Amino acid sequence: MKLSYLVGYGDKYPQFVHHRGASIPADASTGCSDGWKWLSSTDPNPNVAMGALVGGPFKNDSYVDDRNNTMQTEPSTYNSAAMVGLLSGLVATSSVVQSFN
């Protein structure tokens, strides 16, 4: 699909992330139950959840970019834990970083 599952990275990334902060306009006046109208909106998210890692594709590499598809479009910390761990390991062992000490 040539799609980045890291929101905001590259030219093509998820536009319908299942996240209240991304899907409700910043200037909207809402209460606790007012978010439902944005959940079912067909418009892309008004705010980009920059750096959020979504659930990703199914085994057949299919991805349905729909806010109601929480299995694939919801960002969460357990999705990104492995990536953060690997990147921090690379930084800790990098000769470039050690040259700054």
UniProtKB/TrEMBL annotation:
GO BP: cellulose catabolic process
UniProt EC number: 3.2.1.4
Origin superkingdom: Eukaryota
MF term (GO), any: cellulase activity
Residue ranges of domain Glycoside hydrolase family in the record: 1-87
Assigned keywords, A-Z: Carbohydrate metabolism, Cellulose degradation, Glycosidase, Hydrolase, Polysaccharide degradation
Annotated SUPFAM superfamilies: Six-hairpin glycosidases
Sequence similarity: Belongs to the glycosyl hydrolase 9 (cellulase E) family.
Protein name, entry field: cellulase
Organism: Linum tenue
